[in-house]
């Protein structure tokens, strides 16, 4: 009779012990799979939420005379240095080594213009990128869609007496007020927002921008290196990172990963102890059986092979079931831990890793019981007969 057949038959005869072994490993593997899959999915969710905070890299012109206010620029009575950022140069940002970590590049041009007899600040933006970056903006009405649409901050709208649908003449051009920003408590409340090309034309700054905000996904990106890389491709500008925001985001991700690893290690250790105690008990119960095998000519290596083969079968079953249970728990828990719509990833590498980890834990926990069984003296074992 083959050792494999003996091992399978032994597991079949002792169904309660088989179920206990599988449960011990399954809980540990399922916990690891759940935490890893949750960590991966929540990292995606955190990155989505991080984008809501806006830019964490700011690009401004080099100028000693530039007074900073809105994201680095204040135009209230200040004459800007003629040096601006060339809009055409911004395409070089996509060529940096860490360009995959860039979520959005939002250029904008700013200037002071006369509107209804009052001097106000006007900002030209790329509507798609700007409203993607400023996800906290709440617009009463519609955001910018057409070339001559206009969105006003809450304070400037009240100051100029603007209501939705008003026609506003600025620099000889007629705009339609399609939206009013809800009060943000920031400088956004005091600006008029229009499309970038039209504003550039009104301010006489065609082909240039006043500043650029860059949103970086910081789950695994070296922001300081990205600042250096952008500085290399855009010489003559100031590139700075909002370090505190970046460090806070990365710290939150690291803390969650470390917590997941710690919990997984503890649960795996408990699972290994369950396997060890159960296998030791099994060896003690099978003293007579092992003695008969030795008397029939089984070598020590055969006895070790038999015990380890049983643990291997149990580990494979526990690894597969642990992966399925872990993914099922992730599916149930995920909606409770995130507000965004994020998809759960069925990673084949994670499935293979779960089975491999179960084999490693099972074999490690069973090695000493197998070694003890192989060292049993057959004469001592047969005395129990």
Molecular structure report:
The radius of gyration is 33 Å and the shape is elongated. The chain folds into 2 domains: 3-48 and 251-382, no CATH class; 56-241, no CATH class. The protein has 385 residues and is α+β, with helices and mostly antiparallel strands. Helices cover 53% and strands 17% of the residues.
How far apart are the first and last residues' alpha carbons, in Å? 22 Å
The pLDDT mean sits at: 78
Quaternary state of this entry equals single chain
Largest sheet: 10 strands, mixed
Radius of gyration: 33 Å
The percentage of residues in β strands lies in 15-25%
Secondary-structure element series: HHEEEEHEEHEEEHEEHEHHHHH
Task: Please count the beta strands (DSSP E, at least 2 residues each).
Answer: 12
Key terms:
385 residues, alpha+beta, 2 domains, 10-stranded mixed beta sheet, two-stranded antiparallel ribbon, 11 helices, 53% helix, 17% strand
Provide a short characterization of the protein structure.
The chain is an alpha+beta fold. The protein is built from 11 helices and 12 strands.
Topology:
Elements: H1 3-13, H2 15-51, E1 57-61, E2 85-86, E3 102-115, E4 118-125, H3 127-133, E5 139-141, E6 149-152, H4 154-160, E7 167-170, E8 173-181, E9 191-195, H5 196-203, E10 208-209, E11 211-216, H6 223-233, E12 237-241, H7 243-285, H8 287-295, H9 300-337, H10 348-374, H11 378-382
